[in-house]
Amino acid sequence: MPTLSSSALIAELEASGLLGRGGAGFPVGRKWRAVAERAGGGAVVLANGAEGEPLSLKDRSLMAARPHLVIDGALLAARAVGANDIIFYVGSEHRTAEAALRRALAERPGDVRGRARIVAAPAGYVAGEESAAVHYVNAGDARPTTTPPRPFERGVGGRPTLVQNVESLALAALIARRGHAWYQGLGHGRARGIGLLTVSGAVNHAGVHEVELGSTLSDAAAAAGGLNGDVGAVLLGGYFGGWADLHEQWGLPLDAPSMRARGLALGCGVVHFLPSDTCGVEATSRVMTYLASQSARQCGPCVFGLSAIAGATQRLAAQSPQPGDLDRLVRWSGQVTGRGACHHPDGAAALMNSALQVFADDFAGHQHRRCLTIAEPARVAVA
Ligand SMILES: Cc1cc2nc3c(=O)[nH]c(=O)nc-3n(C[C@H](O)[C@H](O)[C@H](O)COP(=O)(O)O)c2cc1C
Ligand code: SF4
User: Which CATH class is domain 280-375?
Assistant: First the structure.
């Protein structure tokens, strides 16, 4: 395919329907257009490879295995939005990925090397949030900032900044090469395109798997070598996603719009199968404790709300609840949503709400100091 002009490239991405893979599923072409319209040639591209989600491996695996594809995507984005500077924001713990990117950049011509740099993102869940990433590059502080202005309006060095997940950039590079019709030709049902999943838990081959979007949950299990035991629930979309009942969702199409319609989220592509002999209250307590520990401690509802929610789930998990803990959990989860400078409390509350639904009987049992999983494990096998 001949080199596309910037506007033709953005139009190609819009026609492809590519959605961002960092979690929110925002249309990639629309974001590039918004930055291009503001940039006047002075924009910045921040390729987000922080990958702070504990259950996700896809971004570090992609950067390690296909660093040139990620760089191609970032260069195309820079051309399309009018950016001179490219920042690869890579989790400081993702050493293999960082080394691969560094080697690949060294193989590029001097003008590319001169415009691109790698910034090590500090460990932690919130460091990958877009305003936190910009704040870290600007001031060495990876805490989110109040928005607006959003990074696409005023970001790195006060300039319009395109913050784009590294998988989104790699897919943009493939679409630029092969055209939007190629991407639209992939996928099942109404879903279009491909995506990376990190599949873990009760499967035979945990790891990163590329699937056509619209593949079902059962396809994801098959791609990971099949389930290796009885499974009752699955965590979809990572710690910012939610729990789902496996038997209800076994045929669920994995695709952001289809999942949103069912109140679920593809997020960053995490699929974690929870073995039936693991208590859902216990598993949720671990996730909530982690998320509370990751608050950037700037907004009251996030700091106090998440720690209160984590405390109640811990007491319930330990079968030593205070009277009314379960009722308070329900109330608090509704109260923290939309109350932080960033979406951290929203994601945590969504996870908690999903747990209260999927593990409703288990939570009720724990409020009465009885664990149903240990007392009478569910032994329903998935075909
Ligand atoms: C608490 C929090 C943590 C996040 N961490 C990441 C991350 O590690 N990597 C990432 O690409 N996006 C992360 N995001 C999403 C980014 O804010 C942003 O939406 C994304 O990088 C944009 O890229 P995309 O449009 O290609 O998805 C996070 C968001 C939140 C609220
Ligand atoms: S909502 Fe939480 S994580 Fe987000 S900025 Fe406020 S304190 Fe930090």
Answer: mainly alpha
